[in-house]
Amino acid sequence: MRSPPPPAPQQHQQSAAYGGMYSSQPGQGGGSGGGSFAPNFGGFMNDQTAQMGFQIGKSAVMAGQEYVDQSLNRYVSIPALKHYFNVSNTYVLSKLALVLFPWRHKPWSRQQRLSPDGREGFLAPRDDLNSPDMYIPVMAFVTYILLSTLLAGLRGAFHPELLGLTATTAFAVVIFEILGLKLGCYLLSISNESQLLDLVAYSGYKFVGIIVTLVVSEILNRGTGTGGWVGWTIFTYTFLANAFFLLRSLKYVLLPEPSSDSVRSATHTVARSQRNRRTQFLFLYSYIVQFVFMWVLSRQDSISAVGVRGKVKGG
User: Fold this and answer.
1) Are 254 and 224 in contact (CB under 8 A)?
2) Ordered DSSP codes for 112-155
3) Would you put residue 113 in left (φ > 0), alpha (ψ -120 to 50) or beta?
4) How many CA atoms are closer than 13 Å to the CA of 175, on its beta-carbon side?
5) How far is CA 158 from CA 166, 225, 233, in A?
6) Is there a contact between 130 and 110 (Cβ–Cβ < 8 Å)?
7) Which of 137, 84, 77, 75 is nearest to 110 (CA)?
8) 257: three-class secondary structure by DSSP
9) What is d(CA 298, CA 206) in angstroms, rounded to the nearest whole number?
10) What is the per-residue pLDDT across 146-196, written as a single tens digit (0 to 9) for each?
């Protein structure tokens, strides 16, 4: 007796069916190349239901984006915020040089222009070196956090908690500084449409001097940090440069000058009675407050590293 033959006809029919399906695709696509494979997913992409679904999804995404923009505009004006990021490579390099070497720069007043609706406004940072921006402060803020943890790692004192401690301290300093400035402006009756964003921008320039202090001190002190007379010398220079820069720049924010003679005559008495207090507040912020904050931030990497090591040993 012979064993029954394998079910070859069934497999042959199945493969033939598959082959017929694949071989018929080029004809459906209208192509002339033999053996090309271009599936159309059963006409799914051409289905009206699918197109309707894509249209609904697109509308949902646009509605969500519009909702986010409206929510953000309640707290921060997006067009005004874009103004502070309108920078160029030339502006960034010139601004960094101005922050570190502000001694002989003139003039310090910002340039104005007329908007299409006839309102006066300031030029964008890329067109005016004296205009505050947020690109340099944001980049310097992030660089400071990463650089502090990097230097701690090079000294063998890195710990994951160090990154959070450094970022928290930097955030706290900036927020506390802005709140203090706003309180001082409120008590001294200083008002400006773009005052808050200007103050946020100016408060971030200190990180440029702190980064220079950390890097140069680390190189000259051969990895021992910002201590010693070398570290104090570099810190003193960057602090004085930042204080002089703020003193000259914030003069036009904290001591605004009226743009017309009528307004000048109406506010002359108020400006004269409060000018001394505003000048004292400007000096206090530019020198005393900045010294404390820059000292804390420039030594934050060493303080945090010691605290983390103590916590790890105690645990």
Assistant:
1) no
2) EEE-TTS-EEEPPGGG-TTS--SHHHHHHHHHHHHHHHHHHHHT
3) beta
4) 6
5) 12, 14, 26
6) yes
7) 84
8) coil
9) 10
10) 999 898 888 887 788 888 899 999 999 999 998 988 888 888 877 765 577
| Spatial separation of the C-alpha atoms in residues 293 and 170, rounded to whole Å | 9
Token pair listed for 263: 């307004």
| Preceding amide of 125 cis, omega within 30 | no
H-state helical runs in 31-134: 48-73, 78-83, 89-100
Cα separation values, 164 from 86, 161, 169, 173, 249, Å: 30, 5, 9, 14, 32
Residues in the chain where the model's pLDDT stays below 70: 1-47, 65-76, 115-118, 192-194, 223-224, 256-273, 300-315
Q: What is the DSSP letter of 259?
A: S
Q: Which pTM does this prediction carry? A: 0.70
Contacts of 239 (CB under 8 A, 6+ apart): 209, 290, 291, 294
Instruction: Report the alpha-carbon angle 237-239-243, nearest 5.
Output: 120
Cα 174 from chain centroid (whole Å): 13
- State the DSSP code for 39: -
DSSP label at residue 37: -
**95: closest CA among 131, 140, 122, 124?**
131
